[in-house]
Amino acid sequence: MSKSKLIWIPAVLVIGIALGLLIYSYFVPHVRTGRTPTAELFNNFGRVAVFCGAASFLWLRFKYLRKSSSFFIRKLSRWVRSIHELAGYLTVAAIVVHGAYFLLFSALKPETFIGLAAFAVLLAIGGYGILIKQVRNVWMRSVHRMLSIAWIPLLLIHAGGALFVASFMSAAICGVVWIIVKFTKSVPQ
What we know:
The radius of gyration is 19 Å and the shape is globular. Helix 1 runs parallel beside helix 6 (about 140-160), helix 2 packs antiparallel against helix 4 (about 70-105) and helix 5 packs antiparallel against helix 6. The chain is about 75% helix and about 0% strand. It is mostly helical. It has a single domain (about 5-25, about 35-185), classed as Four Helix Bundle (Hemerythrin (Met), subunit A). The chain has seven helices and no strands.
């Protein structure tokens, strides 16, 4: 297994591009446009992508619970592992539909450039996620994880409220799981 740190170069470039788009978005004039029902429909694709991303992000917590003493937690951990990849693919698909509509049929606004920055990071997350199994490098998972964490502030700026709801739901799930794990550890077998 390779220990070359060159695997970080594309990730750093993507983060640089995302930061450039983020900075550029503050210089784009604000255009007020009314919301149409069609725009709201495609906005919902963005919300679905945020929730799919949050479901995929749960794997970060559940991967440490695969050998829990609780049968329910072990099964839940396996289920989260099985949906991690599917949720990632659904996130990318929903964002492609969401972004394509707003790029083609909406005026370029600051939110558009922030969305492009988030999309660039999401594509890098997906690329590294796909390549984890093909490229034997000790840093692949770390880069995938770092990009996932770097995606959150971009989503916070772009999606706002939907991210808060998805984060709250993820935190609630993790809190309930933490209580179950603590309870099952204190019960004698």
